[in-house]
Input
Amino acid sequence: MTVPPSPAANVADNDFIEVYDGALDRAQCAALIERFGRSGDSHPGRVGGGVHVDLKDSRDLTISGRADWRDAEAALNTAVFNGVLAYLRRYPHTLIAPLMLEVAGEGGARHRLTAERLQAMDDAALAPVVRTVLRPASINLQRYTGGRGGYPYWHCELYPRDPRAETLHRHLLWTIYLNDDFEQGETEFLYQRRTITPKTGSLLIAPAAFTHTHRGNRPHGGDKFIATSWVLFQRAETLFGAS
Output
């Protein structure tokens, strides 16, 4: 996985959209596409209000919770977690602004986790902190048919959909592009005026809120395949205990 350079001195350069090349290799991506094609279990892609092909035209397959996809889910979550560790070192307040966190220091004393301390932690120290605060969501594989499919509706990932408010626990969005043998099909961010060109195996991470309203442009000359999901906050009863 290729990690972007450290933050520039000019904070205006930080748009909170990061792309990590090589999160998966080409063989892994090809295998996921082949399994997706063989599954026969895909369904029309949904948006928050249901199936609306004028807003999103895709075939989706939720692989989480399925025994026959457990290995793929684990591989994807591992790739994303590695990307999240890199993302947090660039934007440490992703983790520490929502919560006041403390970690053990030398001699067992506890100290507040600052941005500087987080950035200095190695993966072995940072990983359990991240797992305490964040969790993976269900993963979808998606196929957008060339010349027809796409997600042209400008949308964000937060909305008050369900009684347990799982959709309001979404903190980051992520997408791994599984192929790039087509034209266009970019992920386009509205306010940042930035388009991400799909590259096989690359991982996109960005905030889930309205600030990063985005859409998926239509691919041409071939079908576009992605794996996509969110990084969620742990629920309050996990973080703070039952009330």
